[in-house]
Specification:
The protein has about 110 residues and is α+β, with helices and mostly antiparallel strands. It has a domain at about 40-114: Roll (SH3 type barrels), CATH 2.30.30.100. The chain has helices at about 10-15, 35-45, 95-114; strands spanning about 50-55, 60-70, 70-75, 85, 90-95. The chain has a five-stranded antiparallel sheet. The chain starts with 10 loop residues before the first helix and ends with a helix.
Length: about 110
Amino acid sequence: MPDRKLIRPSLTQMMERYPNKTTGRRKQVPAEQTNAENFYYLKQMQARTPMVVVLMDGTELAGWIEWYDKTCIKLNRSEAPNLLLFKHAIKFMFKEEELHTRRRRRSSSRSTTS
């Protein structure tokens, strides 16, 4: 049997045929954090906006946000003690004025349907 010769292209020939795809720009990964939450808290703190915080158990607390950090917010209340609330215990929050406008809409819609 004659010796077989292994035919293999050189590395430079391979690079010419199949260019390296890493030379192009890769898409950047989206930011993990948008800072929207921080912006919202800062805006409400500066305006001392009256807020309603609804906890996971359904309790509604009214007050304004004095400060916040990564895990909690401090809710100041005028007629009750100030509270330190853990964010994981908060179901949602909204501006207190939205509560009043929602009640007005409900009462006006009930009076027109009756």
